[in-house]
Amino acid sequence: RPWPPQGPITLAPLLHLPGGHVRDDLPQLAAAWRRRRQVLRLPFLGAWPRWQQALAAELASLIAVHGAPLHLGYHPVRGQLPQRYLKHLGRQLGEGVVLAPYSAAQLPPGALARTGTGPPLTLALAAANEGSLLRRPGLRR
């Protein structure tokens, strides 16, 4: 698709966590685009305070119905920045929410199923890898 005829390009990453794509891939992409046009970079979606507030409100309503703790799985991330972000997000979401990576190496089978009476939840925009996650023993109801 051709580039817009004029003006800056806005890069708004629809990612929840500051993983490798946010820290490595997007800066490289923005640098390549800057050779052709001005680039306005917005923070990744998970850093937006309104998104964090909306997520906290939604999870609070689920806790009100299903009880706590509510386990929220996320794609595993490495490094100090993602770990600091996850601590911050945990504080924003409140005491009834437990954040846990959903990789087999980091999460015991059935850990996400301990979500009060509700379904296991994942922090994801798209369900690309959730099918394999939900086929794991202990996650079926």
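That was protein one. Protein two is written in the same sequence-then-structure order:
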Amino acid sequence: MRLLDRSRTAVSTILATTVALCVTQASAQTPPGRAQGERPAQAPGGAAPAPGGAAAAPAPGGAAPAPGGAAAAPATTPGAAVAGPDVPGAAPGVPSPVTSPAGDATAEAFVEPDPNVATQDDLQGLRSDLENFKFQWQRERDLHTALSTRSLLIGGVVQARIGWSEQPVNTATSNDRKVTFDTGAAILSFNGILYKDYEEGRNLIYSVRFGASPQQASNNSFLNLLDAQLSYSILPTLGPEDWVLQVTLGQQLLPFGLEVPASEELKPVITNAQFTTKLGLNRRDLGLIVRGDILPQVDYGYNYRAALLAYAVGITNGSGPNTPDDNSEKDLLGRLAFTVPSDYNSLLRQITLGGSVYFGWQNTFLKDEKKTLSGKGVKRRYGADIYYNHYPIGVTYEFIYGQDDATLGTTPDDPRKTRLTSLSHVATFFYNWGEQFLRGYRNQGRYDDWWPKTYQPFLRIDLFDPSTEVLENRVDVYTLGFNLFFAETTKFQLNFNRRDDRTNTEGAQHELLAQLQGGF
């Protein structure tokens, strides 16, 4: 606020300086002896004035001009004072105090100073004030502003959570735990532009994210490197009608399905879908991925853009984040999504059909105590998804089919290599009411930190079968939830889960999770 007040003061001072300099310049251009806007004096009857220093014409009747070469007094007009002895109290030959002597150059050159014109002292004082302001502004910036070599945007997400489970949790370090507080995710992100192309928008950007997150499928609570990537736009991106082609190199999320590429703060449910963790798709990976779209549909009135076709292809290590490749093969993946062409107000808007594939290799291990390496096997993932989001309703569905080679034996001589098949179905139905997702409300003027609110109840059905070859091992999770979006980057989530694990002899279990998520 102090810097803002000083900025306003500086702007007012600069404006005043500009006006003063303009007035001074105009005054300097006015001829001597004439005030601004004054017209030259004219002789009676419209005659031209006599040349400077020349004697006036003789008065009628042959009267001689006044002594000393001075010009003759003008003809008397009604109500005008006359210089001469006829004026009471005036000595002969002495001009009247009311009028200046005719031909007096000092009197003609005198102009009363304008109080609105800045003097040299005023300008010098203004220069001193500006120098003091520049010094104070630079000092405040050095003390209170973080600096970087290139553009930088710092952001983050904090998720505070409390959970209750019907079945007590017993581990090596816990005993009969039912209620616990924990942190769902704590993320710190740095984003910016390394090279900005003002002519065509072929920008080079970077993104770095650190965090402790359950997405890593690890109990490690230390701050880990999540994303570290550089992206370059090959095609021009100056307008929404331009096609997109972007190359990203580094550690990043995989473009597979709907939930896998969504970051932690964008997921509608507190817990992830089962297939993302059990099939290893939620892990970041190191590699090169090309993303783009073609034939975008643009509605400038609603600020809406939807590409007819969106695609992504990539090559990765396949071994997870912060880890070099663990075998001689590279994993390949791709995704293609088709959006139904429609107007913004059409019921068909935002209907997207997508398909994803993942071809990879993974090391296999024996079932002995040492987990002996026995070779490598295939890792295949196939997915199909449907996305429909037309305010106020929304529906998403994902089908995942997986194949994994595994060794069931305990000795290298009899590894008993087999191929396991997994299936997953995830469907989410939600309804919105409120104004936060309406652009007209978000863009309107508001007081203080007011933001439109939105309420979102939803139902999710998550079915996962880790091995179709084994009977009665499917896990079904039904989630009844409610999301409250009450600020620009803040939401409250409440989930009630019913988990039916057919391998658990105690039957279905229930849990309640509440989470407050804030971003900056």
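Residues 51 and 366 are 121 Å apart (CA to CA). Keep this in mind for the problem set.
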